[in-house]
Amino acid sequence: MTANLFNASFYRAANSDLKNLTDAQALAHFQNYGLNEGRTFSPFVDLNFYRASNPDLEKAGIKTNKQLFDHLQKSGVAEGRRFSPVVDINFYLKSNGDVNTAFKGNREQAFTHLQNQGVGEGRKFSQFFDTGFYLARNSDLKTAFGGDRVKALQHLAIYGLKENREFSDFFNINYYRSQNSDLQKVGYQGIQLLEHFETYGLREGRSFSLTFDVNYYRKTYPDLVAAGLSNQQLYDHFQLYGLKEGRASSQSFNVKYYLANNTDLQKAGFSYAQAYDHFLLYGEREKRSGVTSLQSQWTRQFGTSGDDESFGVAVDGAGNVYITGYTNGSLAGNNSGKSDAWVAKYDKSGAQIWKKQLGTAGNDAAYGIGVDSAGNVYISGTTEGALKGTNSGGYDVWLAKYDSSGVQKWLQQFGTSTDDGSNGITVDNSGNVYVTGYTTGALGGASNGNTDAWVAKYDNNGAQKWLKQLGTSGDDESNSVAVDSAGNVYITGYTEEGLGGGNSGKSDAWVAKYDSNGTQKWVKQLGTSEKDQSNSVAVDSTGNVYITGDTEGALGGPNSGNSDAWVAKYDNNGVQKWLKQIGTSGKDGANGVTVDSIGNVYISGSSNGSLAGNNAGGYDAWIVAYDSNGAAVRKRQLSTSADDQLYSVTVDNNGNVYITGATTGAFAGTNAGNYDIWVAKLA
């Protein structure tokens, strides 16, 4: 049986200069001219795609359009070869068991059935295109064509792809473009994007949809891992089986959750497939949640009648949680002076194990915390007095180590005759400790002017290995430090000049990488004409770097008003992969960033607007999770009617999230007075 590939009515519609030809004239024109000219002749066939998808044909000398057409008609359809980006005859047979049974798997007969009946009946014939979704997504076509799916297919082939219309519930052409900057740079549009995805993108595991991610789908289900399915097979599996079974399909969407949490869809008798499409067509626009929000597991609050704040949080392998900050009261012993530093430990259930307070007659505070694999805890901060030895002048830097029982093992203090402080600390797998901060003197080299940033490495016994100072003639400060598995060190902060390039305005954010010996590898600077700064840095298992902060400009999109929060991802060579900006009409800022074992990125901060939920009054705490491609997948706003600040976030190996800050309200219990400390576990 020879497959019929030519469609006279479509040929006229696709080629306006031929619109007055009869069917016979159209066929003659196609055979004599149109085929060689490469004209479109069927909504079901694309010879360029046939050529690209079947490289063996060119090797066999089948190169011209006439040769390709003849081969497809005589052999290609029967062999099950791909001949269109929007038609897959093998998928048609798999999706329509009655057709497969009736024709006993004969692809040529199935193709004839598809052309004559299948499209009109609304049958599925492609993993990449759905006529029903195309009509529903594009209301002008629904109005023009009613439910005519044949016209919908023809419209896609002639106009829709060129117009970058959305045509599939499993592949979003605009999302694919937005997530792949290399395709944007070469100017890919419409059919180019679809063909790239089918030929390369799916195999490469690129991001192509908010609601379906082949990498997430594989990782989530052990049976799929055991089956060793390719990305193409996973893509097909979800459409043929997984969606019907209600399987979760991406970090951003779980159809079972979506249906269970929308009673109107339940009452209407929606299936999982209908619920999936509802989210794409309506739910996302209506701001219905596609996944469960981060839920509180426990929250603890404590304080004195004075001001008490928590600036850092860490978690160990057993799920014990550590927080640190300052108090101007007697939080864990008598206050030594103006304000004291403190550190506390909680078990995984939220029971406080111990807390320690340390201070001098001056102002003392802890801003950073880290924990090693043995449960030793490291904190760092500033002191106006002498926590150990003699104060060098002004504020000094200090760092201390405590064992898992809260016994202090060592404390180091250092500084210049001017002001010095530490804003962050972390520890690597070998127990080396890294601290970072600011100095107005010459802490690790000559002062560059005003305030400089610095980073130092200590061994597990508190011996300094190296210290590096960097800065410009303006103010430069480092707010956070992270270390990767190879011992490379990353710091981030703000600069008023050109620390890693020209300054864009008032202050810019920056991030720098050092190797394990303290040699600087690169510095990257980013900013707008307004104030921008980075407050936190994290690194994942493959060396990607994440920084977050706030901006008064348009750093990663339009500014929502006043200051916005932002987060950026860099690869290990300092190449920016993406940058996201979020905000309200009020003041929003991000103070913390962390990344989990599968590449989800969490940023947290404070907002006096409704950034991740409804604002309850004053400033609220918030947290937003992004997947590795920069798509926001989960969020939560935590609040009282008073002011609530969130300063730090971390995550454990099980995906539980820990956040800490300060509140003038009552998150858990009664406020002791002014600002209280709080810490929460979310999942």
From TrEMBL:
Segments passing through the bilayer: none
Pfam families: SBBP
InterPro entries for the chain: 6-blade_b-propeller_TolB-like, Motility_Chemotaxis_Reg, SBBP_repeat
Protein name per Swiss-Prot or TrEMBL: SBBP repeat-containing protein
Organism: Aetokthonos hydrillicola Thurmond2011
